[in-house]
Amino acid sequence: MIDISKTIGKKIDKFTPVLKAQSIGQIISIGDGVALIGGLADAMMSEIIEFPKKTYGLVLNLNKHTVGAIILGSSNHLKEGDEVTTTGRILEIPVGETLIGRVLGPLGNPLDGQPAPKTTQTEALEKIAPGVITREKVNQPVQTGITAIDSMIPIGRGQRELIIGDRSTGKSAIALTTIINQKKEKLICIYVVIGQKAAFTAQLIDVLKKFKAMDHTIIIAANASDSPALQYLAPYAGVAIAEYFAKQGKDALIVYDDLSKHAWAYRELSLLLKRPSGREAYPGDVFYIHSKLLERAAKLNKKNGGGSITALPIIETQAGDVSAYIPTNVISITDGQIYLEADLFNAGVRPAINAGLSVSRVGGDAQIKAMRQVAGKLRLELAQFRELAAFAQFSSDLDPITKAQLDRGARITEILKQDWDKPLDIEEQVIIIWAVTNGYLDNVTVEKVKQWHQEFIKYIFTTRPKLKSVIKKEKILTPKIIKELEKYTQKFNQSHPQLVKQKEEDQ
Amino acid sequence: MKFHNKTDAIVEGILSYLEEKKSLDLLPEVAKKLSQQSFVRIDPNLAVVSSSIQLNKKQTDEIKQHLSRYLNRPIRIKTKIDKSIIAGLKIEVAGQMIDSTVNRRLKELKTKVIYD
Asked: Testing the interface with B: which of A19, A51, A67, A79 to mutate, by most B Cβ within 10 A?
């Protein structure tokens, strides 16, 4: 009891009233997390305003005599006629190394039950993206650990690669595998959860903890039950944190899961603020909210620290319709997309990447040479195979060339299948793609490809333990390495007759 | 008193008009618009000074002078007596507020003790 009165006494002692002229206004109407305020003649766009009981709001509309604002947090205690004052501040989030491993709300409040992280700096949520002078070409890869992506749709540090697909086609899984694979890569990952079920966030934390990936990850969560204002702000909070790390010359990876829900939240706010609506009832600036966000992903040049922000936005399509409003917007903003298909997913091809429709516009430059060497024609071959396979369903007689192409395609597809929780090293990917594209698996039945893959990798890295480090060092398959690979692959096939069917059976 | 009658007449007029048009349900909308208009009709040259006791001529003149200098234009003053502010002055002018009342300080202290 004494302690409480002492603390209160101390607080009262410390209190010094400040006298200043304040701009004031009154709430005219309030509801659904949006307030219309009269007065506040000095209010600025994106300024923080203060409501009673330390509740804050963000100015989004400046009308002739009124101000439209969204309320950050609970608004249950606010009513018409309440006094509102300006603060002269813009929205900021506390940033620092201590954020790593934490789960935070879009305003920096901890959601993991631990005390707020100790920080000394803040970053503004809204900021103009880095200009032309400070940028550099993407030249370093992000290793996702997913063979299909690292080989055919390579992602570079500073790139924006969209992950797009219907519900439950493994979109989040791709982002998750990528984060799990960054343990050794010195890439700080930020996962922004927008409008998802709270259970999804809880599961995400569990999975990342299980793989010890929380040691380099920050989660910013605005769940479905949070106000649309918070859902709208979450990605900007995430990128502000990423900018803090990029400024120090570090590399950051940010996942926005997902931007469709972000657009929904913004549509909700805009309609409540009575802004004119356009196509699909989205406001006119729905393109801009995504372009200004994704433009903040950048590879900075040496002069500016050399850091980078790689963005992996996720978009959920409805019934595979990529030509809807938000998907086309984000496709046009990003540097390529990974297109996931429900049909492939249901056919057991996981990750369900459609090789024909997926592209990476800048990542090729960042790919390591060895991978470029072996994966050169992989995408084309696979896309051709998918088309051919569809066509071949109708005919029984196939010429030997077509049949060989189909067989090879089936094996490539098999090699690219991968569980989400098993990211592969780039060296392993290079060796396995080399083997399949050079026909060393042509005599392996499709069902046994997976087993061959596992046994071969075990075999080659136990018999030639140095191979991994050599490929890593050289970053290219030299004729010497290729010769060695040829020798050992032939040896492996000879010594594992149970995996490789005989030529006679083939006829 | 004369003003009072005028207001009554206006209100009566509006009500009978709405009744005639069978649109009395629009009354809340009208009230909302009017309250919005009240913010529009703020006279930028009129300062409302609230105090707990009646201010004398010298005091109001001094306030008038200070405000005119601060805002760079001649300011008129309307005084108001509000016992709830306990002591000090509250000046509202052109959408801005200078509040040095004891009531305000107590309120600030309360939020500080509760939320900080």
From this structure: A19
DSSP state for residue A299 in the 8-state scheme: B
Q: Do residues A428 and A445 make contact, with C-beta atoms less than 8 angstroms apart? A: no
Q: Are residues B33 and B51 in the same domain?
A: no
pLDDT in tens, A9-31: 887 888 887 778 888 898 988 98
- Residues B107, B73, single domain; the answer is yes
Can you give the pLDDT at residue A1? Answer: 60
Q: What 3-state class would DSSP assign to A138?
A: coil
Range of weakest confidence among A18-27, A65-74, A253-262, B46-55: A18-27
Residues comprising chain B, all counted: 116
Query: Same domain for B111 and B54?
Result: yes
A-B C-beta contacts closer than 8 Å: 60
Domain count, chain B: 2
Q: Taking the domains of chain A in order of start, what are their residue ranges?
A: 16-90, 140-339, 373-506
B104 & B50 share domain: yes
Residue B97, min C-alpha distance to chain A (Å): 5
Backbone dihedral angles phi then psi of residue A56, each to the nearest 5 degrees = -115, 160
Q: Which residues of B touch A40 (CB under 8 A)?
A: 95
Helices and strands in chain B, H and E counts: 4, 4
A250-261 as b/e: b if 16+ CB within 10 A: bbbbbbbbbbbb
Same domain, B60 and B12: no
- Please check whether residue B40 touches A, CB under 8 A: yes
CA nearest B90 in A: which residue? Answer: A21
Which residues of A197-263 form beta strands (DSSP E)?
Answer: 217-222, 251-257
Q: Return the CA Rg of chain A.
A: 27
Round to whole Å and give the CA distance between A126 and A93: 10
Is A386 a known active-site residue?
Answer: no
Contact between A192 and A201 under an 8 Å Cβ cutoff? The reply is no
Q: Give Dmax over CA atoms of chain A in angstroms.
A: 96
Do residues B12 and B62 both lie within one domain?
no
Fold of A140-339: Rossmann fold (3.40.50)
Same domain, B21 and B72: no
Q: Could you read off the pLDDT of A131-158 as tens digits, one per residue?
A: 999 999 999 999 999 999 999 999 999 9
Radius of gyration, CA atoms only, chain B: 20
Mean pLDDT of A409-436: 94
Nearest to A307 by CA among A374, A252, A234, A345: A252
The backbone region for A482, taken as left when phi is positive above 0, alpha when psi lies in -120 to 50, beta otherwise, is alpha
Class (C level, CATH) for A16-90: mainly beta
DSSP state of B102: H
Options A89, A135, A275, A361, the catalytic residue: A361
- Give me the residue label for tokens 């005028």: B6
Distance CA A28, CA A38 (A): 6
- The answer to whether residues B30 and B67 belong to one domain is no
Alpha-carbon distance A138 to nearest alpha carbon in chain B (angstroms):
45
Contact A250, A222 (CB under 8 A): no
What's the domain range around B67? 46-115
Query: Could you read off the pLDDT of B72-109 as tens digits, one per residue?
Result: 999 999 999 989 889 989 998 888 888 889 988 888 88
Topology of A373-506 in CATH?
A: Lysin (1.20.150)
- Contacts A41 to B, Cβ<8 Å: 94-96
